[in-house]
Amino acid sequence: MSSDTAGLCNLEFLPRYERLLADNLPPGFTQFAEFFSGTQRLHTLAAVLDRHLAGDGLEVLNVGSGPFATEIFVAALQGHRVTAIDYKAEFAPFHELFRAEGQLETTSFVQADIMARTFPSDAFDLIILHDILYENALDLEAVIGRLIPAIKPGGLIFFDFVNARTRWVWAALGKPDRFRRYDPDAVRRFLAERDLAIVEWRPTHGAKRRVVKATHQLLAAFGMPNNFAVLARRDGG
Ligand SMILES: C[S@@+](CC[C@H](N)C(=O)[O-])C[C@H]1O[C@@H](n2cnc3c(N)ncnc32)[C@H](O)[C@@H]1O
């Protein structure tokens, strides 16, 4: 396996996945076919889960699932019982569409706003928030705070976020800053206060456009990664 495909699976389905997105996304959403088919977005998540997710038939919650790229292409998630949740009606039909293609056999889907949804306590072995906490309407501490009781003791939560300390770089480059950002130290403090022990904390370089990816790599080389991915464990396992 090359490093470009490590931790991924079902890549033979990728052209069909992109075609189905392109053909079925409503007007105004068609540009997302290429975005979600860019599996480089999933490399860090796939590698981190490959290293740390152990066991069979685990209960997984994927928050902000979009059109199910994570469920289909991340190898470590295959065979587990995944509950995918997303509030956008535009992505909902893809659950049935991909199931008709033999995908998502162990994935159920709920169309809902994560901030309006409650879950039973200790329900999930893993909760994933991949590429969602950049949303201005979501607050990292509020979202994760309400999800913590739903993680089984000893269970995991994966999330990624945009670094507040690199905001000035994008401003200096004259780029509009569309993302909600967080200070890494504040995130570490929050995790410690909520008894979430860091398992992995690493920079991510999932951007597709070469210039953006190069900027991310340059920032990381100077000790200022633009994005971080975090895997943390709820104490008590
Ligand atoms: C960039 S997409 C990422 C999709 C998926 N996690 C992935 O990495 O392929 C962000 C997703 O989060 C969803 N989202 C944003 N805010 C949400 C909320 N409050 N409740 C549920 N879903 C939300 C959006 O609808 C969108 O599908």
CATH 2nd-level architecture: 3-Layer(aba) Sandwich
How many β-strand runs? 8
CATH topology name, in short, is: Rossmann fold
Please report which band the strand proportion falls in: under 5%, 5-15%, 15-25%, 25-35%, 35-45% or over 45%.
Answer: 15-25%
Number of domains: 1
The radius of gyration over CA amounts to 17 Å
Any idea what the CATH superfamily is called?
Answer: Vaccinia Virus protein VP39
Give the terminus-to-terminus CA distance.
33 Å
- Share of residues in helices: 25-40%
Helix and strand sequence: HHHEHEHEEHEHEHEHE
Structural class: alpha/beta
What hetero molecules are in the model? S-adenosylmethionine
| Mean pLDDT, all residues | 92
General form: globular
- Poorly predicted regions are none
Q: How would you characterize the largest beta sheet?
A: 8 strands, mixed
The CATH top-level class label: Alpha Beta
**How many H/I helices?**
9
Walk me through what this model shows.
32% of the residues lie in helices and 22% in strands. The chain is an alpha/beta fold and 237 residues long. The chain has a single domain (11-234), classed as 3-Layer(aba) Sandwich (Rossmann fold), CATH 3.40.50. Strands 1, 2, 3, 4, 5, 6, 7 and 8 form an 8-stranded mixed sheet that branches. It is globular. The two termini are 33 Å apart. Bound molecules: S-adenosylmethionine. S-adenosylmethionine is lined by residues 36, 64-66, 69-70, 85-88, 91, 113-115, 130-132, 135, 138.
